[in-house]
Amino acid sequence: MTGSTVFAAIDIGASSGRVVAGIRDGQGFRTDIVHRFPNGVRQADGHLRWNLTSLFAEVQKGLRALTARYPDVISIGVDTWAVDYGLLDAAGRLIAEPVAYRDSRTDAVIAEVDAVLGRERQYEISGLQFLPFNTLYQLAAERTAAHWTQVAHAVLLPDLIAYWLTGELRTEATNASTTGLFDARSRSWSAEAFDALGLPPDLFPALIRPGETVGTITDEIAVRTGLPATTAVVAVGTHDTASAVVAVPALDREFAYVSSGTWSLVGLELDEPVITTDTRAANFTNEGGVDGRVRFLRNVGGLWLLQESLRQWSSDGAEQDLSDLLAKAGELPDGGPVIDIDDPSFIAPDDMPARIQAACRDSSQRVPQTRAEIVRCVVDSLAVGYARTVAEGARLAGRTVSAIHIVGGGCQNVLLCRLTADLSGLPVLAGPVEATALGNVMVQARAAGAITGDLEALRAVERAGLTLREYQPSSDRSGALSSKAR
């Protein structure tokens, strides 16, 4: 292929979605965000649910806009967040809008699941850190619902969107690896886990790997979007973090990454999982990556705390500008309160500033009073979490880390990047912001023959077209994790 080629990336996160044109040209890759749309949970039928039907309407709107701007789209790739799924009946119809991972329904079944498949055994199989919303807990809760008898398939959310685009049911492997039902070593479904939970072995559609073609779009989608009916939907790293890690613009393998968004995924890229007593105790996870790589990481609280704080202040009638608050927070002295950013009390939506203040009070620290102080507390706590997790991951994996790459929305947060460099004692390279969409596009481009090589080759091409911002640790604070942080 010569000249520029265009790929469509559907990239949906827990707070917003994008339809992005990814352009491969002589300088590398560039992105054009054609359509943005909001996302969020809502109360319905006694649960927090996603409105996936509405999201799919936005996807089609975005594809129409993309086609109008770039008529010669090669293919489409879809990525979303992990663990959540939709349930289909035998006719392929969505039974109900998907329940969100922030819903509390799993609280009642965790002990029941652990009794039949203990957490130690769960970890030996899946290599996943314990999280109360892991898919196996969600499905255990689902089995008590009246509609369970109608269920023919559970379909992870990016695969559900791909199904609506193509009519083909598949389960992409990197996202399957987040369910707790996937064997991290054999990289296939675990019959033991399905049997222990009493789940049908064919509950999920057949596996597909990144770079393989799901199918071509249906005639109906072609009419609605203006795309040719021959347009392929290609499996990418459909778990958004898997795509984001593809686009980490590292020069070598001695890097740690932070995919910083609503959640922060902090870890290393390995060739094989690390499943030991120590990694389980440290709550590290082994998720699948593109090209069979392993994302050895830990979920760390993310920008959700800032997003929810802004939402709360806005609902109180005090609209706040985050840039202004971050500037004021950066002027505050070091040494303020630090909360456990991973505490489950921060998972659900509600009055986040009050919960942050309560956490400081309960840990006998100074309670932040102003909005800037609350923002600084969150950013300090995130930076502590990032630095601590990188250090612990490197120790557990026996790896040397020479730099931390922060990608996603958090890479624009200068204060967060600076503090992470200071606390870790490592240089931080910030960017790209749209790492997930870029990684999505890069896998499509390789599948189409627009680029060749392994992930290192893809990253080299990507980096040629990027300008990264670098933060060196301050000499007076280098590696200055407090005893509280450790």
Automatic annotation (TrEMBL):
<dbReference type="Pfam" id="PF00370">
    <property type="entry name" value="FGGY_N"/>
</dbReference>
<keyword id="KW-0418">Kinase</keyword>
<keyword id="KW-0067">ATP-binding</keyword>
<protein>
    <submittedName>
        <fullName>Rhamnulokinase family protein</fullName>
    </submittedName>
</protein>
<dbReference type="InterPro" id="IPR000577">
    <property type="entry name" value="Carb_kinase_FGGY"/>
</dbReference>
<dbReference type="InterPro" id="IPR018484">
    <property type="entry name" value="FGGY_N"/>
</dbReference>
<keyword id="KW-0859">Xylose metabolism</keyword>
<keyword id="KW-0547">Nucleotide-binding</keyword>
<dbReference type="Pfam" id="PF02782">
    <property type="entry name" value="FGGY_C"/>
</dbReference>
<dbReference type="InterPro" id="IPR043129">
    <property type="entry name" value="ATPase_NBD"/>
</dbReference>
<dbReference type="InterPro" id="IPR050406">
    <property type="entry name" value="FGGY_Carb_Kinase"/>
</dbReference>
<keyword id="KW-0684">Rhamnose metabolism</keyword>
<feature type="domain" description="Carbohydrate kinase FGGY N-terminal">
    <location>
        <begin position="8"/>
        <end position="246"/>
    </location>
</feature>
<keyword id="KW-0119">Carbohydrate metabolism</keyword>
<feature type="domain" description="Carbohydrate kinase FGGY C-terminal">
    <location>
        <begin position="256"/>
        <end position="448"/>
    </location>
</feature>
<dbReference type="InterPro" id="IPR013449">
    <property type="entry name" value="Rhamnulokinase"/>
</dbReference>
<comment type="similarity">
    <text>Belongs to the FGGY kinase family.</text>
</comment>
<keyword id="KW-0808">Transferase</keyword>
<dbReference type="InterPro" id="IPR018485">
    <property type="entry name" value="FGGY_C"/>
</dbReference>
